[in-house]
């Protein structure tokens, strides 16, 4: 579609769009391929951040506001056409939430549902104090990521892949280190919010996400670690859950 948004499986008759936000260091391809997993009622958009894939010549984003500004402007022409939902994994959970907040505050637009995965709520006490990891040497940085479960195994086993992976990953970690969000005095969203997590991943404060919305709230844990969502059986479960919520919205509001 454009440099920021990818849609590999176009579905002009879809009733809802699912917009997916990548994890730290990630590109758009994984979620863009989700388009083949959903039926014709859901069209999948995948966010491509600066500095990766077709945007390798562009500088990485320096902070969350920069990401949100770019993504919001790219999505805006498409968001009034039909209902939309957000899905984010790990860092993508924060970027999807921050984008949803910007769209509501500035344009009066809100996703019908926010699906977050693999991370504590942005204001959770478990995030603070935020230690700076992005200044580590590449060797120690990878060791830390491996210990935290935040790096795909295939990257750790391939030195050449690691060299390509480290720059965007460090850039994204730097964004996360500067992203501070305090618990709001009142709910800032009204859409439903669902948390997914790997049952064997490091513990996350998922309950704190409930502080951010007045909509319905649910938590699901699926087998596996931080990248549980790469398992075909788990992808099937995720697609089933997401489809159910979007169908319920259609029956209630459309």
From TrEMBL:
UniProt GO molecular function: fatty acyl-[ACP] hydrolase activity
Gene3D superfamilies, per the entry: alpha/beta hydrolase
Any one Gene Ontology BP term: medium-chain fatty acid biosynthetic process
E.C. number: 3.1.2.14
Highest taxon of source: Eukaryota
Entry keyword annotation includes Lipid metabolism: yes
This protein's name: S-acyl fatty acid synthase thioesterase, medium chain
Taxonomic source organism: Pelobates cultripes (Western spadefoot toad)
């Amino acid at each position: 579609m454009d440099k920021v948004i990818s849609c590999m499986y176009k579905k002009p008759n879809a009733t809802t769009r699912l917009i997916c936000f990548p994890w730290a260091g990630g590109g758009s391809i994984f979620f863009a391929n989700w388009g083949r997993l959903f039926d014709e009622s859901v069209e999948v958009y995948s966010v491509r951040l600066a500095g990766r894939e077709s945007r390798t010549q562009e500088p990485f984003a320096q902070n969350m506001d920069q990401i949100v500004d770019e993504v919001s402007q790219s999505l805006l022409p498409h968001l009034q056409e039909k209902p939309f939902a957000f899905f984010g994994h790990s860092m993508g959970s924060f970027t999807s939430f921050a984008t949803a907040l910007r769209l509501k505050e500035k344009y009066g637009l809100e996703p019908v549902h926010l699906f977050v995965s693999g991370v504590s709520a942005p204001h959770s006490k478990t995030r603070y104090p935020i230690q700076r990891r992005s200044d580590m040497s590449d060797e120690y940085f990878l060791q830390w990521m491996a210990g935290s479960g935040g790096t795909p195994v295939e990257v750790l086993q391939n030195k050449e892949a690691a060299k390509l992976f480290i720059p965007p990953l460090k850039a994204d970690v730097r964004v996360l280190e500067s992203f501070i969000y305090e618990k709001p005095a009142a709910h800032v969203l009204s859409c439903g919010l669902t948390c997914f997590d790997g049952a064997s991943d490091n513990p996350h404060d998922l309950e704190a996400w409930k502080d951010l919305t007045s909509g319905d709230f649910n938590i699901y844990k699926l087998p596996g670690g931080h990248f549980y969502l790469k398992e075909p059986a788990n992808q099937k479960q995720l697609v089933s859950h997401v489809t159910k919520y979007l169908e319920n919205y259609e029956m209630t509001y459309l």
